[in-house]
Amino acid sequence: MEYKYHLLKYAGPSSRLTCPNCGRKRCFAPYVDKDNNIVGEEYGRCDHESSCGYVKYPPTEKDWREWQPQPQRQYSRPKPRIIVKPQPLQEPPQGYCTIPADIVQKCVRTKPLSDFLRFLLTIFDEDTVSRLVSEYFIGVTKAGDTIFFQMDTQGRCRTGKVMKYNPETGHRIKDLTARTPITWVHSLLKQQGVLPREWELTQCLFGEHLLKKYPDKPVCLVEAEKTAVIASAIMPQCVWVAVGGKTQLGDKVEVLEGRKVIAFPDVDGYDKWVEKCAERPYLGIMVSDYLQKNATEEDKRTGADIADVLIRWLQANPSYVAPKPESEPTPELYPDNPVMREVMKYISPQYWDEVNELIKDLDLEFVGVSRNSLKFEGKN
Question: pTM to 2 decimals?
Answer without folding.
Answer: 0.64
